[in-house]
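Moderator note: this is an archived Q&A kept for reference. The question asked for a predicted structure of one protein chain; the sequence and the answer are reproduced below.
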Amino acid sequence: MPDPKNTLLKSQVNTRRSQRVVARIRIQVRRQAEGDGFISETSHTLVVSAHGALLGLAMKVRPNELLAIQNVRSSEEAHSRVVRVSEEAARQNEVAVEFTEPAPNFWHIDFPPADWKALED
């Protein structure tokens, strides 16, 4: 009999809009501060996709908050929305973001084709 947990995990992975790639890309993140100012932080990505990223951030953010992300290498900027915040690491939160507008070339990497499959254990 198939393991229901494993089946659920596989179905969640198969519903992703694009492939995820582990990549450490230097970024500058900016968010609106209370009042008229901005708060910014230089950090890096943990995982990227054509639709967003998982970021390591020390700044406090909330789900649905809008962030401006600059790819430091290319100087390109994209706007994103916080999807999830995991406060697991000691110094940084893991923050999942999705782009507000499609930006498939923002990371300047080639993503694996949709039919690519990782080796299974």
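Archived answer notes: Residues 60 and 93 are 8 Å apart (CA to CA).
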